[in-house]
Amino acid sequence: METRSAKRRKLRNPEHPSENNSGEDRITDLPNAVLHHILFLLPIKSIVQTSILSKRWRTLWYTFPDLDFTTIIPSGTALTKFVYLKNLGNVITQILSLRTKLSDVRILRFCACMSFSGLHALIRTAVRLRVQELDIRVATNDTFNFPRSIIRSDCLRVLKVRSCPGFRLPPSRIMRSGFRTLQTLSLSFVHLDNQSYLLDMFTDSSFPQLRKLNLDSCFNLKHLRVGCRLLEELMLDNCSTLQVLEILSPRLETLKVSSCFNAINTDNTSFQINAPRLHTIVWSNTSITGKSCMQNLLCLHDVTIGFLARQENLDAAKLQNVSSFLSGFSHTEFLTLESPFVEIILKNNPLANIFFHPFVKLKSLELHISEIRGLASLLKVCPMIHTLIIKITNGLKSERRWNNRNVWDLSSTWEEQYWESQTNDLKPLLQFLRVVKIQGFSECENDIIILVKFLLNHGRVLQHLNLYPGDYNSRGYHRHEKFKSRIMGFSRASLDAKLAFC
User: Fold this and answer.
1) Global pTM?
2) CATH number for the domain that contains residue 357
3) Where do the F-box domain residues begin and end (predicted)?
4) Which of 18, 228, 314, 453 gets the highest tally of CB atoms within 10 A of its CB?
5) What is the 3-state secondary structure of 431-492?
6) Minimal CA–CA distance to 382: which of 439, 440, 435, 425?
């Protein structure tokens, strides 16, 4: 019987041209690792279908290490989809049971409706097959206990668990006994009824290799302390009962906090961080903490801040909390402030000049705003930016409508007088500002015209001013043309300034 190596030598022999063109199956003769890599690019349903080709391909399926069942999208009615998801867990368990100890599973991802016993049995089998990445999305009849067989795995690198209605974590002492090799951990819908203070769980002794941590919808979580030495990325989402967040991770590069902290009572909330390598922070739809302490954020590059809108009206004490929070990010180079936070500044204009420290390293400022008036108070603390991006939100569109008389009689408007009165205070900014982009002002051109005129008249190094008015209806075309004509007629302090209307 001719071996596969003999066949390959014959195919490479130029003296057998007829055999070279005989339609020989060369793909089948490739090594298992190469074929597994090719199959990885296909949906798992297609991979299963290849197993009927021959014993060779059946063996490839039985040894295929990357099982992603989330690529199967069931069709039909809601009932048929439910039946499919309910049976999928048993199917996966049967597939895993056909494997020998020599056929390890590298990746296992699935989304299914399962019983507690079925889920635990499936996970035990996956752990026995030395799974390295486990992504579980399940729906169960009730909350369940976190499978302890996962904790004992000495091969697991990535663990993602998302369930409905949720699951309970074992005690911290149990969690600390495993996960020696885990690098990525994502937990969603966690019930912490009996351990709302996670102070000693996410430490070096518990997760010595952890690089990425994602906690989503951790119910009753009140105090979280993260001190993993190798942690590079931390994401917290929908932890609305959180009161205290402490982070001490020397290698942390990215922090994202969304919809966290108690929005009703912020007096007892606090945020502390010491992360000398932190590069990016996103603080979105999250309350202002009563206390904040940021240390060693010397590598900060990109910051996005968006507070809850309900906290726009602040007294001096609470504005001081905002100042302490924002001052911790004074080393950043790129700053994005979403509408609720900008409202805090504009509605507390006199206090803003007192409390807010200048961002002397800031290069780019992006503002999502609903009000142009009073904007100078915010620009004063950003004296060295070279790029300014303004995105108008719906608030300004609905409150300030187009008025032809006001547009063409700019010299007598209060807004123009206001901007001219700020010239000296904004002089440092006007000596650095090179690029300005303004978006979404199709129904508030009056305010934008005044701002653009001021920037063109005083921006000595301005190079590009791009205007994106947004959607116009058919009747607004002529209005837009008049708007462009008026802008083009303004004098320019910089000979290099170029206008663009998009």
Assistant:
1) 0.85
2) 3.80.10
3) 24-72
4) 228
5) CCCCEEEEECCCCCHHHHHHHHHHHHHHCCCCCEEEEECCCCCHHHHHHHHHHHHHHHCCCC
6) 425
Q: pLDDT for 440-451, tens place per residue? A: 876 667 888 889
Distance CA 383, CA 233 (A): 31
Residue 471 burial by Cβ neighbours in a 10 Å radius (0-12, 13-18, 19+)? exposed
Domain assignment present for 164:
no
- The DSSP output letter for 77 is -
**How many CB atoms lie under 10 A from the CB of residue 400?**
20
Q: Which domain holds residue 370?
A: 321-393+414-501
DSSP H or E run through 282:
strand 280-286
C-alpha–C-alpha distance, residues 256 and 214, integer Å: 9
**Which two three-digit tokens encode residue 229?**
């030495």
Residue-wise pLDDT for 285-321, tens only, equals 888 888 999 999 989 999 999 876 555 556 677 777 8
Q: Determine contact, residues 111/137, Cβ cutoff 8 Å.
A: yes
Sort 386 into a burial class: Cβ within 10 Å, 0-12 / 13-18 / 19+: middle
Q: What is the crossing angle of helices 316-327 and 339-347, to 10°? A: 130
Cβ burial of 350 (10 Å; 0-12, 13-18, 19+) is exposed
Do β-strands 270-274 and 244-248 pair in parallel, antiparallel, or remain unpaired? parallel
**Strand partners for 307:** 286
